[in-house]
Amino acid sequence: MASSLRLEDPSVFAGQWQATLTARSDAPEAQALQDKPSNICLIDLESNQTLGKGADCLSAWLQDSAIGWFPDPDGLSITGKEGSRIQFFSRQRDGLYLSTLKSGLMITLERAAKQP
């Protein structure tokens, strides 16, 4: 089945993404109404497959240094210092990826709206 999945070009992912940290019990609608800036990070996926602005915020959630990223046929991987995967985000739909941490908390990664 994996052979039917297409590996996206890294340029498809480059740009700004919004990462949101939620508990399983938080409905997305309820989370959007909560004023918890520490639960939201804006992260830049650079075209050279490194993480730019927001990497520190994501690193704190992952409890590991998030340095880079690469596309997978069925998602997106975040890499650490040695270039190995430290977290995998599964594709839910175009522009929306989801990962569950060991703690049970979930991170959604959604492409940020293009700035005019």
Describe, in plain words, how this protein is organized in 3D.
The chain is mostly beta strands and 116 residues long. The chain has one domain: Lipocalin, CATH 2.40.128. It has two helices and seven strands, in the order E-H-E-H-E-E-E-E-E. The protein has helices at residues 28-33, 55-62; strands at residues 15-22, 40-45, 68-72, 75-79, 85-93, 96-100, 106-111. The longest helix is centred in the middle third of the chain and has 8 residues, at 55-62. The chain is globular and about 30 Å long. It comes from Pseudomonas kribbensis.
Structural class of the secondary structure composition? mainly beta
Which stretches are low in confidence, meaning pLDDT under 50 for 5 or more residues running? none
Largest pleated sheet: 7 strands, antiparallel
Indicate the radius of gyration in whole angstroms: 14 Å
- The succession of helices and strands, N to C, reads EHEHEEEEE
Q: What characteristic shape results from the CA principal axes?
A: globular
What is the CA–CA distance across the termini?
A: 39 Å
CATH-defined architecture? Beta Barrel
The total tally of domains equals: 1
- Say how many strands there are: 7
Q: Could you tell me the mean pLDDT? A: 87
> Which percent bin holds the helix content?
10-25%
The proportion of strand residues reads 35-45%
